[in-house]
Amino acid sequence: MKQDYSYVGKSVDRNDSYGKTTGHAQYTADLKFPGMLYGKLIRSTIAHGRIKSIDTSEAEKLNGVKAIITAKDVPSMKWGLSPARFDENIFCIDKVRYHGDKIGAVCAVDEETVYKALKLIKVEYEELPAVFTWQDAAKEGAPQIFEEYPGNLNTEIHHHFGDVDAALKDAYYVRTDKFQGQRTYHAFIENHASAAYWDGDRAFLYSSCQSVHYVQYHLCRVLGMKMGNLTVRQTNVGAGFGGKLDPTGLDFAAVILSKITGQPVKMWYDHAETFLNGRGRHPMTMELTTGVDKNGKILAHKFDCVLEGGAYTGLGIASSYYAGSLLGVLYLIDNYKFDCRRYVTNLPPCGAQRGHGQPQPRFAFEHHIDLVGEAIGVDPIDMRLINARKGNSITTAGYEVKSYNLVGANKMARDASGWTEKRGKMGVGRGIGVGNGGFVTGAGFCQYRTDYPHSVGMVKIFDDGTRAYVYSNAVDIGQGSDTVLMQMAAEAMGYPYERCQMVTGDTDLSTLDFGAYASRQTLMAGWAVKRAGAEVKKKVLAKACEMLKASGRIKEGFGYLDGPLTPEDLDCVEGIVFVKQEPAVKLTFEEVARKYFVDHGVLLGRGWYHPGKLGGNHKGAAVGTSPAYSSATQVAEVQVDMETGQIECVDTWDVHDSGTIINPKLFHGQVHGAFYMGVGETIWEEVKFDKKTGKLLNGNFAEYRLPTALDMPPVESLTLDDSYEPNGPYGLKEVGEGATTPTMGAVANAIYDAMGVSMTELPITYEKVWRALRDKKASGK
Amino acid sequence: MSSFVVDKDGIKRYAVTVNVNGSDYTKVIKANTLLVNLLRDDLDLTGTKRGCELGDCGCCTVMLDGNPVNACLVLAIDCDGREITTIEGIQDGEDLDIVQEKFIEHAGFQCGFCTPGMIVSSRALLNENPSPTEYEVREAIAGNLCRCTGYVNIVAAVLDAAENL
Ligand code: FES
Ligand code: FES
């Protein structure tokens, strides 16, 4: 299946190399427009309460303040990223629901004046009792945060495939374990920013977001605008990891303020506000029960999960489904029960973070299955090999899985890491652990109901053939999608990659793509631009055929052609069109393209992608169904200081079953970054709030502890050579999110191997380890 | 002491002259103006990023008289008469600096937001210590957070740059 390609599979440099290494790459906060005003949001200073009054009069008097808006000045239509749960307003109308909720916005001539104005705004509240944990939210008589969610229950899911209870009865060994995850945060370094201006009835918005399309859709829906009247644009984005998918208060406020003032308005979050904007990982409370036969084969699995959602739904419904929907893709489990509840609380909303709802359940399952294996005397990797799914199969929930080599990933990780020589043999304090994971390659459905294709691509060849413009609103938030999309388009066209240019980040100029989430772009936008490139090639070959015939060059020496020269006799590679059986007879792509332009006008290719009907019919099947699934195994080796509890992750291996790798250099970068986030969440990261007031305590990178270069272990990133996904363009599938999902399990299992105490609560901090070791000593075991 | 004028609210505005990337700029600023804002807002040198504004992330790193500093923690007034090198001043005319080249070659960046600070810190290290160990590289960039790369390719890029200075 593998072919020789010119660009696919090559580590070409990123297309944004020059700009990003010289400081010339622009991000939203770098933009300046003549007459530009600066704006910020007004935020709630209590966690739950009714707004009695908002007094902006003092602030309005301040020299330089241009406009102040609150709920009364903006449309009251609710919005959200989960279609069945629109529960967020631009600004709070009667109630605030968390400390930091959005109350309004101010704009002024400069930053300093904005901050001064914010201090002069007085909001009076009738304070209401608040809840900060799901346990409190679920209590009888708990304060109601939303009328529409009685008992603060935002959603519940009950999936049951097969017959779990019967299978557990027959099991050789049954075990139940409980786990607790924590709230984490994407922690991109670029804070959200938006800038807007108007031209007549047309608005233009720059947003540091993950989807220009969703921002455009949601803003237009709420503001009552035609989508053709709002252009959403984008500069470089300083990463997102799920935290820039929801439109922000800045997006809405910038558009409205610039309309009111008639001047461009730029708005931004400071660092703590990005934490308040939230949408990071849900803390999950998990209980897992597994029954196995004596070889370790899983007979039944029960997963009970509660998500603490924070104040709004956001993408939380999808997060809830993702918590349980992908387990059956990794492992063969005929009898599976998944019960899930999501509660709202008076904290910033949780949402999607790299791997979406999956990483914490992966942590729980991967550690749990080690404990099961230990009890029956089966090695962790053997446990995984016995239960791993194989390719070309259908899950219990009905998802179709084409390529899938989790078995190969486990074996390769075992061999590369020296597992057999190390496991259990490295002495007290040193340990090695394994974890599996993987992810969807794009979601099967749009986030709102539509029959649009998921991605549309276009290639336009410049008049004289010296440049190819590749169109797609797939969003490069740093993962390198622009580069790999151009590699695929160039390959499909037979045109030099170096002469391609991306036209993206503009809903007017470029073509629809739903954006950067669910690890979808390389496959979906990849299909769209590959098809667009193929159409260009087809036109080029037809024109070249015509030109060759007219030139008379093919009269002699072409005895091997049965009839007249046809486009099928030609090919085009790296900008040269040639006769396949006589490559010396050739034209340049440029001259052919130029002739095409002279004869017909612009040379265009178009492509689009829709996943079509995918597997799964149960309620909620939409979250988890995908054209392709990656799988991955990670092994981590740690050193635990048995006195202080300090954990050092010393070495790691990752094997990702990712189909064809379009750009190995960028691929490995995804694995490194994914592992980095995973190890941070395992050991150090947690967003904390004051238990009485719900006030954010550590909205900064000194106290929200990201791993530094000194904490990060080496990562050996390996791939499976024969991995090929028939549903992906050029045989590819995802890497970006899937590689985060095995990490917490692998590291936690290594910690267990090192210290002999099972740590079931994230993050596994030094202090928790120290306490666990102390308790172990005290109990004399 | 820099000369100043007093505005109508009685607030002093100081004239400072800073040498940025080899050119002198004279600007009138307030006593509390941060270097990062002077560079970005007054000189339009937006390559220096503003992230945490608290000294935690390092994306605002510039060289002040050759030493890497967080521009969000330095008062512009303290830079009067001093030399600053920003990311825009790292390259030599048309030619990229070896650190920049190696960042490209190793894909030592993804979103690129930490990159200006990361490159300035790395260059400052190599100016002081042209053959650092891996640990010394990690130590030198420990104040520059990167959420995208796990530092793996960054460290590789800096070590490779050192080899090719
Ligand atoms: S912006 Fe200066 S250290 Fe973060
Ligand atoms: S490249 Fe994104 S923060 Fe470093």
Describe the structure.
The complex is a heterodimer of chains A (781) and B (165). With 781 residues, chain A is α+β, with helices and mostly antiparallel strands. Chain A folds into three domains: 31-128 and 190-238 and 244-277, Aldehyde Oxidoreductase, domain 3, CATH 3.90.1170; 284-444 and 616-778, Aldehyde oxidase/xanthine dehydrogenase, molybdopterin binding domain (Aldehyde Oxidoreductase, domain 4); 454-609, Aldehyde Oxidoreductase, domain 4, CATH 3.30.365. With 165 residues, chain B is of the alpha+beta class. Chain B has two domains: 4-89, Roll (Ubiquitin-like (UB roll)), CATH 3.10.20.30; 98-163, DNA polymerase, domain 1 (Orthogonal Bundle), CATH 1.10.150.120. Chain B has five helices and six strands, in the order E-E-E-H-E-E-E-H-H-H-H. In chain B, strands 1, 2, 3, 4, 5 and 6 form a six-stranded mixed β-sheet that branches. In chain B, helix 2 (98-105) packs across helix 5. Classes of the chains: A alpha+beta (781), B alpha+beta (165). Chains A and B meet through helix 1 and helix 18 of A and helix 2, helix 3, helix 4 and helix 5 of B. The complex binds FE2/S2 (inorganic) cluster (FES) (2 copies). One FE2/S2 (inorganic) cluster (FES) sits between chains B (109-115, 146-149) and A (189, 239, 478).
